[in-house]
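Feature request, filed as a ticket because there's no other form

It would be nice if the structure record came with a short human-readable summary line next to the tokens. Right now we just get the raw output. Example of a typical job, pasted below so the devs can see what we mean:
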Amino acid sequence: MTSSSRSRTTARRAGVAILGVPVLALSLGACSGLGDPTAAAVVDGRTISERDVQIIASELADGTGGAVTPAQVVPLMVVAGVVDEITQNTVSRQGAQEALDAQAEAQQQPLQEYSDATLDFIATNLELSSIQQDQLAAAEFTERLEELDVRINPRYGSVDPEQGISQGIGAPSFPWLGQPDGAQPLG
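Raw output as currently delivered:
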């Protein structure tokens, strides 16, 4: 998945424990043999590139002053397509940039520009918060996750049909990243 060509409405990914979301049990396809040495993960045949994962982790670590690892980024990237389909892309890249700017201002850090990949990642995180607040959306999310074929590069974690995606480091938490002004839960 490249930052310039990400199709937020057609990509499909699988469920995880990330950003305070409980681990979801998944019925996933085979988890070995990515077929692409530059892939961090492959979801329904769509590649999530290591390059994008590294960029997102680096930009978030630099921009927030926190430690964000690539292994923490991959799970949300895996579920992004499902999140986007359910929420219909309710958070724009501009909304994501505003949320990151608000955080930087709160921490008295300089504002920075983020790549499209990072803005899409943050938008997905904010959209996932909306799904968590809506029982019907959460049920649809879980149902769609069960249909995905997810393979993770072992450097970033593993997929277990009973436990979902494990990172070995623990799920990241970005509590500072709230909803942008005017954002509402789904429903």
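Something like this underneath would help us a lot:
The two ends are 30 Å apart (CA to CA).
Residues 1-32, 168-187 have pLDDT under 50 and may be disordered.
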